[in-house]
Amino acid sequence: MDLNLPEELVLALKDIIPGREPQIRQLTSLLSPVSGPSTLVVHGTEATGKSTTTKAVLKFLENPFAIIRSQECVTTRHLLERTIAAVNKAGIDEKAGDGALYAANGRCESISAFIVLLQKTLPSVGKFTLVFDGIDRQRDASPTLLPAIARLGELITNLSVILIVTVPQPRLLHRPGIPHIRFPPYTKAEALQIVSLSPLVLCPSSPSDLIPNMPKDEDSQWLWSRFCGAVWDSLGQGAARDITSFRSVCSQLWKPFTEPILKGDYGVREFAKLMVRNRALFQSEAALTKSIITPNTSPTSSKSAVVKALLALPFYSAYLLVAAYLASYNPPRLDQTFFTKTSERRKRRRAPPSTPNHRKIKNRKINRRLLGPQAFVLERWLAIFSAIVPDGGVKGGGADVMGQIATLGRLGLVTRAGTGDGEMGGEKWRANVGWEVVRGLGRAVGCEVENYLAE
Question: What DSSP line would sit under 398-410, residue for residue?
Protein backbone atom coordinates (compact mmCIF):
# COMPACT_ATOMS: atom_id res chain seq x y z
CA MET A 1 0.00 0.00 0.00
CA ASP A 2 1.26 3.46 -0.87
CA LEU A 3 1.67 5.25 2.43
CA ASN A 4 2.07 8.58 0.68
CA LEU A 5 -1.61 8.35 -0.36
CA PRO A 6 -3.53 7.47 2.80
CA GLU A 7 -6.65 9.07 1.33
CA GLU A 8 -7.61 5.73 -0.23
CA LEU A 9 -7.44 4.08 3.15
CA VAL A 10 -9.49 6.83 4.77
CA LEU A 11 -12.21 6.65 2.13
CA ALA A 12 -12.40 2.87 2.43
CA LEU A 13 -12.66 2.92 6.21
CA LYS A 14 -15.01 5.89 6.41
CA ASP A 15 -17.87 3.86 4.97
CA ILE A 16 -17.21 0.96 7.34
CA ILE A 17 -16.70 3.07 10.49
CA PRO A 18 -18.74 6.29 10.18
CA GLY A 19 -18.01 9.27 12.38
CA ARG A 20 -14.34 8.44 12.99
CA GLU A 21 -12.54 10.05 10.03
CA PRO A 22 -10.15 12.23 12.15
CA GLN A 23 -9.17 9.25 14.29
CA ILE A 24 -8.61 7.08 11.21
CA ARG A 25 -6.25 9.69 9.74
CA GLN A 26 -4.30 9.93 13.00
CA LEU A 27 -3.96 6.17 13.34
CA THR A 28 -2.89 5.83 9.70
CA SER A 29 -0.08 8.33 10.11
CA LEU A 30 1.10 7.11 13.53
CA LEU A 31 1.06 3.39 12.67
CA SER A 32 3.25 3.78 9.61
CA PRO A 33 5.85 0.98 9.33
CA VAL A 34 8.50 3.47 8.23
CA SER A 35 8.37 5.82 11.20
CA GLY A 36 6.03 5.77 14.13
CA PRO A 37 6.02 6.00 17.93
CA SER A 38 6.83 2.92 19.95
CA THR A 39 3.84 3.51 22.24
CA LEU A 40 0.42 4.95 21.44
CA VAL A 41 -2.51 5.60 23.79
CA VAL A 42 -6.07 5.40 22.45
CA HIS A 43 -8.62 6.63 24.97
CA GLY A 44 -12.32 7.41 25.18
CA THR A 45 -15.51 6.40 26.93
CA GLU A 46 -17.18 3.04 26.42
CA ALA A 47 -18.65 2.08 23.04
CA THR A 48 -16.97 4.86 21.06
CA GLY A 49 -15.31 2.63 18.44
CA LYS A 50 -11.76 2.52 19.84
CA SER A 51 -11.14 -1.21 19.38
CA THR A 52 -13.07 -1.48 16.11
CA THR A 53 -11.28 1.45 14.49
CA THR A 54 -7.83 0.33 15.63
CA LYS A 55 -8.35 -3.22 14.38
CA ALA A 56 -9.70 -2.02 11.02
CA VAL A 57 -6.76 0.34 10.44
CA LEU A 58 -4.23 -2.38 11.27
CA LYS A 59 -5.93 -4.78 8.86
CA PHE A 60 -5.89 -2.24 6.02
CA LEU A 61 -2.22 -1.43 6.70
CA GLU A 62 -1.47 -5.16 6.46
CA ASN A 63 0.78 -5.02 9.51
CA PRO A 64 1.07 -8.13 11.70
CA PHE A 65 -0.65 -7.46 15.00
CA ALA A 66 -2.19 -9.17 18.03
CA ILE A 67 -5.02 -7.90 20.24
CA ILE A 68 -5.15 -8.91 23.91
CA ARG A 69 -8.32 -8.12 25.85
CA SER A 70 -7.63 -7.57 29.52
CA GLN A 71 -11.18 -8.45 30.53
CA GLU A 72 -10.45 -12.04 29.46
CA CYS A 73 -7.33 -12.28 31.65
CA VAL A 74 -7.75 -13.17 35.31
CA THR A 75 -4.26 -12.33 36.60
CA THR A 76 -1.16 -10.52 35.37
CA ARG A 77 0.56 -13.82 34.60
CA HIS A 78 -2.45 -14.85 32.54
CA LEU A 79 -2.17 -11.58 30.60
CA LEU A 80 1.53 -12.03 29.85
CA GLU A 81 1.25 -15.68 28.81
CA ARG A 82 -1.79 -14.90 26.69
CA THR A 83 0.20 -12.16 24.96
CA ILE A 84 3.00 -14.57 24.06
CA ALA A 85 0.46 -17.06 22.73
CA ALA A 86 -1.27 -14.35 20.68
CA VAL A 87 2.04 -13.26 19.13
CA ASN A 88 2.78 -16.83 18.02
CA LYS A 89 -0.76 -17.27 16.74
CA ALA A 90 -0.44 -14.16 14.56
CA GLY A 91 1.35 -16.22 11.89
CA ILE A 92 4.93 -15.13 12.47
CA ASP A 93 6.25 -18.46 13.77
CA GLU A 94 7.85 -19.37 10.47
CA LYS A 95 9.62 -16.03 10.20
CA ALA A 96 10.79 -16.05 13.79
CA GLY A 97 13.97 -17.66 15.03
CA ASP A 98 14.52 -20.88 16.94
CA GLY A 99 13.45 -19.21 20.17
CA ALA A 100 9.84 -18.96 19.03
CA LEU A 101 9.07 -22.58 19.94
CA TYR A 102 10.63 -22.12 23.35
CA ALA A 103 8.74 -18.87 23.88
CA ALA A 104 5.44 -20.47 22.96
CA ASN A 105 5.86 -23.19 25.59
CA GLY A 106 7.70 -21.13 28.20
CA ARG A 107 6.30 -19.90 31.48
CA CYS A 108 5.98 -16.19 32.07
CA GLU A 109 5.74 -15.29 35.75
CA SER A 110 7.13 -11.74 35.68
CA ILE A 111 7.51 -8.79 33.36
CA SER A 112 11.24 -9.51 32.98
CA ALA A 113 10.57 -13.05 31.75
CA PHE A 114 7.90 -11.63 29.46
CA ILE A 115 10.39 -9.28 27.79
CA VAL A 116 12.89 -12.11 27.30
CA LEU A 117 10.28 -14.38 25.73
CA LEU A 118 9.03 -11.57 23.53
CA GLN A 119 12.56 -10.83 22.29
CA LYS A 120 13.05 -14.48 21.38
CA THR A 121 9.73 -14.53 19.57
CA LEU A 122 10.48 -11.38 17.53
CA PRO A 123 14.18 -11.48 16.67
CA SER A 124 14.18 -10.38 13.04
CA VAL A 125 10.56 -9.97 12.02
CA GLY A 126 9.32 -6.70 10.58
CA LYS A 127 7.13 -4.22 12.35
CA PHE A 128 4.74 -5.89 14.80
CA THR A 129 1.95 -4.21 16.80
CA LEU A 130 0.66 -5.32 20.19
CA VAL A 131 -2.76 -3.95 21.18
CA PHE A 132 -3.74 -4.13 24.86
CA ASP A 133 -7.49 -3.49 24.99
CA GLY A 134 -8.78 -2.24 28.36
CA ILE A 135 -5.40 -2.53 30.04
CA ASP A 136 -6.38 0.08 32.65
CA ARG A 137 -8.96 -2.40 34.03
CA GLN A 138 -6.61 -5.35 34.37
CA ARG A 139 -7.25 -7.37 37.52
CA ASP A 140 -4.53 -7.66 40.15
CA ALA A 141 -2.26 -5.36 38.17
CA SER A 142 0.84 -4.04 39.90
CA PRO A 143 1.68 -0.31 39.73
CA THR A 144 4.65 -1.06 37.46
CA LEU A 145 2.77 -3.15 34.87
CA LEU A 146 1.59 -0.31 32.65
CA PRO A 147 4.88 1.65 32.71
CA ALA A 148 6.76 -1.56 31.84
CA ILE A 149 4.44 -2.35 28.92
CA ALA A 150 4.76 1.23 27.69
CA ARG A 151 8.56 0.83 27.46
CA LEU A 152 8.51 -2.41 25.47
CA GLY A 153 9.09 -0.47 22.26
CA GLU A 154 12.35 0.92 23.65
CA LEU A 155 13.72 -2.57 24.34
CA ILE A 156 12.37 -4.24 21.18
CA THR A 157 12.94 -2.05 18.15
CA ASN A 158 10.48 -3.76 15.80
CA LEU A 159 7.58 -3.62 18.28
CA SER A 160 4.83 -1.01 18.65
CA VAL A 161 2.43 -1.00 21.58
CA ILE A 162 -1.09 0.44 21.54
CA LEU A 163 -2.82 0.91 24.90
CA ILE A 164 -6.61 1.26 24.73
CA VAL A 165 -7.88 2.83 27.95
CA THR A 166 -10.97 4.66 29.13
CA VAL A 167 -9.46 7.61 31.01
CA PRO A 168 -5.72 8.36 30.63
CA GLN A 169 -4.43 9.46 33.99
CA PRO A 170 -1.54 11.98 34.00
CA ARG A 171 0.95 9.64 35.69
CA LEU A 172 -0.37 6.39 34.29
CA LEU A 173 2.74 5.46 32.28
CA HIS A 174 5.46 7.41 34.17
CA ARG A 175 6.72 8.63 30.83
CA PRO A 176 6.09 11.91 28.96
CA GLY A 177 5.81 12.46 25.24
CA ILE A 178 3.48 9.56 24.38
CA PRO A 179 0.95 10.50 21.67
CA HIS A 180 -2.72 10.20 22.58
CA ILE A 181 -5.73 9.78 20.28
CA ARG A 182 -9.09 10.67 21.79
CA PHE A 183 -12.37 9.09 20.68
CA PRO A 184 -15.14 11.50 21.74
CA PRO A 185 -18.75 10.37 22.27
CA TYR A 186 -20.88 10.18 19.16
CA THR A 187 -23.09 13.10 18.29
CA LYS A 188 -26.75 12.66 17.41
CA ALA A 189 -26.10 12.63 13.67
CA GLU A 190 -23.26 10.10 14.00
CA ALA A 191 -25.27 7.84 16.32
CA LEU A 192 -28.27 7.85 13.98
CA GLN A 193 -26.01 7.12 11.01
CA ILE A 194 -24.46 4.10 12.77
CA VAL A 195 -27.76 2.68 13.99
CA SER A 196 -29.32 3.19 10.54
CA LEU A 197 -26.73 0.85 9.00
CA SER A 198 -28.57 -2.15 10.50
CA PRO A 199 -32.27 -1.20 10.66
CA LEU A 200 -34.92 -3.46 12.13
CA VAL A 201 -37.74 -4.48 9.85
CA LEU A 202 -41.46 -4.74 10.42
CA CYS A 203 -41.94 -8.44 11.03
CA PRO A 204 -45.10 -9.90 12.59
CA SER A 205 -44.77 -12.23 15.55
CA SER A 206 -46.85 -14.93 13.83
CA PRO A 207 -48.13 -15.60 10.27
CA SER A 208 -51.67 -14.82 11.41
CA ASP A 209 -50.64 -11.23 12.14
CA LEU A 210 -49.87 -10.49 8.49
CA ILE A 211 -51.64 -7.43 7.15
CA PRO A 212 -52.82 -7.16 3.53
CA ASN A 213 -50.50 -4.31 2.52
CA MET A 214 -47.14 -5.04 4.12
CA PRO A 215 -44.79 -2.03 4.03
CA LYS A 216 -41.83 -1.99 1.67
CA ASP A 217 -38.22 -2.03 2.79
CA GLU A 218 -37.69 1.67 2.05
CA ASP A 219 -40.78 2.56 4.09
CA SER A 220 -39.54 0.44 6.98
CA GLN A 221 -36.10 2.07 6.82
CA TRP A 222 -37.69 5.54 6.72
CA LEU A 223 -39.74 4.73 9.81
CA TRP A 224 -36.69 3.28 11.58
CA SER A 225 -34.64 6.45 11.09
CA ARG A 226 -37.47 8.65 12.37
CA PHE A 227 -38.04 6.31 15.30
CA CYS A 228 -34.34 6.33 16.29
CA GLY A 229 -34.34 10.12 16.25
CA ALA A 230 -37.31 10.20 18.64
CA VAL A 231 -35.62 7.68 20.95
CA TRP A 232 -32.44 9.78 21.02
CA ASP A 233 -34.32 12.97 21.88
CA SER A 234 -36.34 11.35 24.68
CA LEU A 235 -34.03 8.74 26.25
CA GLY A 236 -30.72 8.42 24.43
CA GLN A 237 -29.49 11.97 24.85
CA GLY A 238 -29.52 11.78 28.63
CA ALA A 239 -29.25 8.12 29.61
CA ALA A 240 -28.08 6.07 26.60
CA ARG A 241 -25.27 8.10 25.04
CA ASP A 242 -23.11 5.15 23.96
CA ILE A 243 -23.98 3.19 20.84
CA THR A 244 -24.52 -0.11 22.63
CA SER A 245 -27.11 1.28 25.05
CA PHE A 246 -28.77 3.35 22.34
CA ARG A 247 -29.12 0.37 20.02
CA SER A 248 -30.47 -1.77 22.89
CA VAL A 249 -33.14 0.80 23.78
CA CYS A 250 -34.20 1.12 20.14
CA SER A 251 -34.48 -2.67 19.80
CA GLN A 252 -36.65 -2.95 22.92
CA LEU A 253 -39.05 -0.17 21.92
CA TRP A 254 -39.32 -1.05 18.22
CA LYS A 255 -41.78 -3.93 18.57
CA PRO A 256 -44.37 -2.13 20.79
CA PHE A 257 -43.96 1.01 18.68
CA THR A 258 -44.80 -0.79 15.42
CA GLU A 259 -47.57 -2.96 16.87
CA PRO A 260 -50.37 -0.60 15.66
CA ILE A 261 -48.96 -0.88 12.11
CA LEU A 262 -49.07 -4.68 12.19
CA LYS A 263 -52.65 -4.53 13.45
CA GLY A 264 -53.62 -2.28 10.55
CA ASP A 265 -54.58 0.74 12.67
CA TYR A 266 -51.99 3.11 11.15
CA GLY A 267 -49.80 3.30 8.08
CA VAL A 268 -46.01 3.35 8.00
CA ARG A 269 -45.86 7.02 6.98
CA GLU A 270 -48.21 8.16 9.78
CA PHE A 271 -45.33 8.82 12.16
CA ALA A 272 -47.03 11.68 14.05
CA LYS A 273 -50.04 9.52 14.91
CA LEU A 274 -47.77 6.70 16.02
CA MET A 275 -45.91 9.09 18.33
CA VAL A 276 -49.16 10.24 19.94
CA ARG A 277 -50.34 6.65 20.31
CA ASN A 278 -47.05 5.45 21.86
CA ARG A 279 -46.03 8.52 23.83
CA ALA A 280 -45.97 6.45 27.03
CA LEU A 281 -43.04 4.44 25.63
CA PHE A 282 -40.86 7.53 25.43
CA GLN A 283 -41.93 8.84 28.85
CA SER A 284 -41.09 5.65 30.74
CA GLU A 285 -37.55 4.61 31.71
CA ALA A 286 -38.33 0.88 31.81
CA ALA A 287 -36.26 0.25 28.66
CA LEU A 288 -33.15 1.60 30.40
CA THR A 289 -33.34 -0.96 33.20
CA LYS A 290 -32.36 -4.52 32.36
CA SER A 291 -34.52 -7.11 34.07
CA ILE A 292 -35.46 -10.75 33.54
CA ILE A 293 -38.55 -10.50 35.74
CA THR A 294 -41.87 -9.65 34.16
CA PRO A 295 -43.21 -6.51 35.84
CA ASN A 296 -46.37 -7.03 37.86
CA THR A 297 -49.33 -4.71 37.91
CA SER A 298 -48.83 -1.26 39.34
CA PRO A 299 -49.31 -0.75 43.10
CA THR A 300 -52.28 1.50 42.45
CA SER A 301 -54.16 -1.11 40.44
CA SER A 302 -53.35 -3.90 42.91
CA LYS A 303 -54.48 -1.72 45.80
CA SER A 304 -57.76 -0.87 44.07
CA ALA A 305 -58.29 -4.58 43.39
CA VAL A 306 -57.92 -5.33 47.11
CA VAL A 307 -60.40 -2.59 48.00
CA LYS A 308 -62.93 -3.92 45.48
CA ALA A 309 -62.58 -7.41 46.94
CA LEU A 310 -63.15 -6.10 50.46
CA LEU A 311 -66.23 -4.18 49.36
CA ALA A 312 -67.74 -7.53 48.40
CA LEU A 313 -67.79 -8.61 52.07
CA PRO A 314 -71.19 -9.29 53.66
CA PHE A 315 -72.87 -6.51 55.61
CA TYR A 316 -72.11 -7.78 59.11
CA SER A 317 -68.58 -8.91 58.14
CA ALA A 318 -67.80 -5.36 57.05
CA TYR A 319 -69.01 -3.99 60.39
CA LEU A 320 -67.01 -6.66 62.23
CA LEU A 321 -63.85 -5.58 60.40
CA VAL A 322 -64.52 -1.91 61.19
CA ALA A 323 -65.12 -2.80 64.84
CA ALA A 324 -61.85 -4.75 64.92
CA TYR A 325 -59.98 -1.72 63.57
CA LEU A 326 -61.57 0.57 66.17
CA ALA A 327 -60.71 -1.88 68.94
CA SER A 328 -57.08 -2.00 67.78
CA TYR A 329 -56.53 1.74 67.50
CA ASN A 330 -58.78 3.13 70.27
CA PRO A 331 -57.68 2.92 73.91
CA PRO A 332 -60.13 0.94 76.09
CA ARG A 333 -60.63 3.90 78.45
CA LEU A 334 -62.39 5.83 75.65
CA ASP A 335 -64.90 3.09 74.81
CA GLN A 336 -67.54 4.63 77.06
CA THR A 337 -67.06 8.00 75.38
CA PHE A 338 -67.33 6.76 71.81
CA PHE A 339 -69.68 3.78 71.99
CA THR A 340 -72.13 4.58 74.82
CA LYS A 341 -75.16 6.22 73.27
CA THR A 342 -76.15 8.12 76.45
CA SER A 343 -72.78 9.88 76.79
CA GLU A 344 -72.04 13.29 75.35
CA ARG A 345 -68.72 13.92 73.67
CA ARG A 346 -66.87 17.01 74.63
CA LYS A 347 -65.53 18.91 71.70
CA ARG A 348 -62.00 20.20 71.97
CA ARG A 349 -61.48 23.80 71.12
CA ARG A 350 -58.13 25.05 70.02
CA ALA A 351 -56.71 27.81 72.12
CA PRO A 352 -56.14 31.13 70.35
CA PRO A 353 -52.57 31.76 69.19
CA SER A 354 -52.08 34.55 71.74
CA THR A 355 -52.54 32.38 74.83
CA PRO A 356 -49.44 31.14 76.68
CA ASN A 357 -50.65 27.51 76.49
CA HIS A 358 -50.48 27.67 72.70
CA ARG A 359 -46.86 28.77 72.78
CA LYS A 360 -45.81 26.08 75.24
CA ILE A 361 -47.15 22.68 74.24
CA LYS A 362 -46.20 19.87 76.59
CA ASN A 363 -46.48 16.12 76.16
CA ARG A 364 -47.27 16.13 72.46
CA LYS A 365 -48.97 12.80 71.68
CA ILE A 366 -48.28 10.56 68.70
CA ASN A 367 -51.13 9.49 66.48
CA ARG A 368 -52.13 5.95 67.45
CA ARG A 369 -52.39 4.94 63.80
CA LEU A 370 -48.60 5.36 63.58
CA LEU A 371 -47.97 2.98 66.48
CA GLY A 372 -49.50 -0.13 64.92
CA PRO A 373 -52.54 -2.20 65.89
CA GLN A 374 -52.99 -3.26 69.52
CA ALA A 375 -54.47 -6.55 70.69
CA PHE A 376 -58.03 -6.67 72.07
CA VAL A 377 -60.24 -9.32 73.61
CA LEU A 378 -63.16 -10.86 71.76
CA GLU A 379 -65.69 -9.56 74.30
CA ARG A 380 -64.65 -5.94 73.63
CA TRP A 381 -64.74 -6.53 69.88
CA LEU A 382 -68.33 -7.78 70.01
CA ALA A 383 -69.35 -4.88 72.27
CA ILE A 384 -68.01 -2.30 69.80
CA PHE A 385 -69.67 -4.17 66.95
CA SER A 386 -73.04 -4.05 68.72
CA ALA A 387 -72.60 -0.31 69.34
CA ILE A 388 -71.84 0.73 65.75
CA VAL A 389 -74.08 -1.64 63.79
CA PRO A 390 -77.47 -0.09 62.88
CA ASP A 391 -80.66 -1.09 64.72
CA GLY A 392 -78.77 -2.74 67.54
CA GLY A 393 -77.34 -5.46 65.32
CA VAL A 394 -77.60 -9.09 66.32
CA LYS A 395 -76.79 -10.85 69.51
CA GLY A 396 -73.05 -10.98 70.12
CA GLY A 397 -73.00 -14.70 70.69
CA GLY A 398 -74.91 -15.64 67.57
CA ALA A 399 -73.50 -18.49 65.51
CA ASP A 400 -73.60 -16.37 62.36
CA VAL A 401 -71.37 -13.66 63.88
CA MET A 402 -68.89 -16.18 65.27
CA GLY A 403 -68.72 -17.89 61.89
CA GLN A 404 -67.99 -14.60 60.16
CA ILE A 405 -65.23 -13.88 62.70
CA ALA A 406 -63.66 -17.23 61.84
CA THR A 407 -63.91 -16.37 58.13
CA LEU A 408 -62.17 -13.01 58.67
CA GLY A 409 -59.41 -14.85 60.50
CA ARG A 410 -58.93 -17.33 57.65
CA LEU A 411 -58.75 -14.45 55.15
CA GLY A 412 -56.01 -12.80 57.22
CA LEU A 413 -58.01 -9.60 57.79
CA VAL A 414 -57.75 -10.19 61.54
CA THR A 415 -55.13 -12.27 63.32
CA ARG A 416 -55.30 -14.11 66.62
CA ALA A 417 -52.96 -12.53 69.18
CA GLY A 418 -53.54 -14.89 72.13
CA THR A 419 -55.78 -17.61 73.55
CA GLY A 420 -56.82 -15.65 76.64
CA ASP A 421 -57.47 -17.16 80.05
CA GLY A 422 -59.79 -19.94 78.86
CA GLU A 423 -63.01 -18.02 79.48
CA MET A 424 -65.59 -17.41 76.78
CA GLY A 425 -64.70 -14.21 74.93
CA GLY A 426 -61.22 -13.94 76.49
CA GLU A 427 -59.14 -14.74 73.38
CA LYS A 428 -57.25 -11.81 71.88
CA TRP A 429 -57.32 -10.56 68.31
CA ARG A 430 -55.63 -7.86 66.24
CA ALA A 431 -56.80 -6.01 63.10
CA ASN A 432 -54.68 -6.58 59.98
CA VAL A 433 -56.01 -3.90 57.60
CA GLY A 434 -54.99 -0.30 56.94
CA TRP A 435 -56.74 3.00 57.43
CA GLU A 436 -57.55 3.63 53.77
CA VAL A 437 -59.19 0.23 53.41
CA VAL A 438 -61.26 0.56 56.58
CA ARG A 439 -62.41 4.07 55.72
CA GLY A 440 -63.56 2.99 52.25
CA LEU A 441 -65.22 -0.12 53.66
CA GLY A 442 -67.01 1.91 56.33
CA ARG A 443 -68.33 4.43 53.84
CA ALA A 444 -69.57 1.58 51.65
CA VAL A 445 -71.79 0.27 54.48
CA GLY A 446 -72.77 3.73 55.80
CA CYS A 447 -70.40 4.01 58.77
CA GLU A 448 -68.16 7.04 59.21
CA VAL A 449 -65.13 5.58 60.98
CA GLU A 450 -63.74 9.05 61.80
CA ASN A 451 -66.58 9.63 64.26
CA TYR A 452 -65.47 6.68 66.40
CA LEU A 453 -61.68 7.04 66.15
CA ALA A 454 -59.62 8.77 68.83
CA GLU A 455 -57.12 11.43 67.77
Answer: -HHHHHHHHHHHH
CATH 1.10.10 fits 304-340+367-452, yes or no: yes
Phi/psi of residue 77, nearest 5 degrees: -60, -40
Residue 103, number of CB atoms within 10 A of its CB: 23
- Check pLDDT > 80 for residue 362: no
- The pLDDT value recorded for residue 209 is 47
* Sequence-distant (≥ 6) Cβ neighbours of residue 365 within 8 angstroms: none
For residue range 176-216, list pLDDT tens digits in order.
889 999 999 999 999 999 999 889 888 655 444 445 555 56
Separation CA 279–CA 194 (nearest Å) = 25
Indicate the fold that domain 7-183 takes in CATH. Answer: Rossmann fold (3.40.50)
For 414, the 3-state DSSP assignment is strand
* Domain(s) of CATH 1.10.10: residues in the chain: 304-340+367-452
pLDDT digit string, tens, across residues 330-359:
988 888 888 876 555 544 444 455 555 544
Given a contact cutoff of 8 angstroms between Cβ atoms, the answer to whether 285 and 252 are in contact is no
The upper half-sphere exposure of residue 127, i.e. CA atoms within 13 Å in the direction of its Cβ, equals 17
Q: What is the pLDDT of residues 10-29, one digit of tens each?
A: 888 888 899 899 999 899 88
- For the chain, residues classed under CATH 3.40.50.300 are 7-183
Q: How far is CA 423 from the centre of its chain?
A: 57
